[in-house]
Write a structure and sequence with these properties.
Helix content is 45%, strand content 5%. It is mainly alpha-helical. Strands 1-2 form a two-stranded antiparallel ribbon. The structure holds heme C (HEC) (4 copies).
Amino acid sequence: MKLTLTMFFSLPLLAALFLSYTTILMAKTAPKDVIELGTAGKNGPVTFKHSEHIAKHKLACSTCHHGIKTDEEAKACSACHKTEKVEKTPSYKDALHKNCKDCHKKYKEDAAAKGVKLDALPTLCKHCHKKAK
Ligand code: HEC
Ligand code: HEC
Ligand code: HEC
Ligand code: HEC
């Protein structure tokens, strides 16, 4: 009786331990769910639903993380794109604006051509920058 009781209580504990262990392992490569991009700018941070973009629109990692050979190679854009343009590398702001806006524009055109209505496709400043007018 004593043994079964101990087992009864320790099984969920083991399961929880296992789960948190796999979460830690996965966290190394799994993309973040939501990323707050930029904080210091006068327009305020831009909330980017990373996982939702990938899942809902079946996007390959390399759509945005250009030049990667495996998904594990994906890293922050800010690793290369800095505040100012450096030689051929566009600034962080220009790189992200181009990446985000070009795709939203393209989807808008494609949807219009197919007669599909998308929920929300940010193209105006205030759609992405919460503090912008
Ligand atoms: C599709 C989303 C999106 C739209 C639309 C957009 N931006 Fe941005 N913008 C971003 C992201 C992402 C960054 C990079 C993160 C950061 O630095 O805030 C950024 C950065 C910036 C920055 C540099 C950082 C700062 O906050 O000062 C400025 C200035 C800026 N945007 C202005 C604008 C203006 C003006 C418009 C409208 C003409 C606009 N943006 C439209 C997503 C967007
Ligand atoms: C729609 C564009 C887009 C897609 C698709 C995308 N990402 Fe990202 N990812 C970003 C942006 C933007 C950032 C933030 C980079 C920054 O702030 O410099 C980011 C950040 C990351 C980071 C760094 C997070 C950190 O801690 O700084 C990792 C890792 C990552 N992505 C992995 C992935 C993987 C793996 C996939 C595919 C399953 C993927 N991404 C798909 C746009 C994208
Ligand atoms: C390993 C460094 C590196 C990382 C990480 C990186 N970039 Fe770049 N990116 C570059 C360089 C270098 C260029 C300029 C040469 C080129 O076009 O390949 C560039 C160019 C660009 C351009 C302009 C392309 C054009 O046709 O004008 C965009 C947009 C861009 N990057 C977006 C991103 C985004 C978004 C991320 C993160 C999800 C990211 N980059 C991560 C190095 C990087
Ligand atoms: C390759 C295509 C693609 C790229 C790149 C992309 N998006 Fe989007 N995004 C979409 C589509 C498609 C939707 C429309 C979603 C819907 O209709 O449900 C969307 C919707 C959104 C929305 C509104 C819905 C929500 O999540 O609240 C925001 C905000 C947004 N994107 C921000 C960004 C930012 C910031 C970037 C750049 C870091 C970015 N997106 C890059 C395709 C893209």
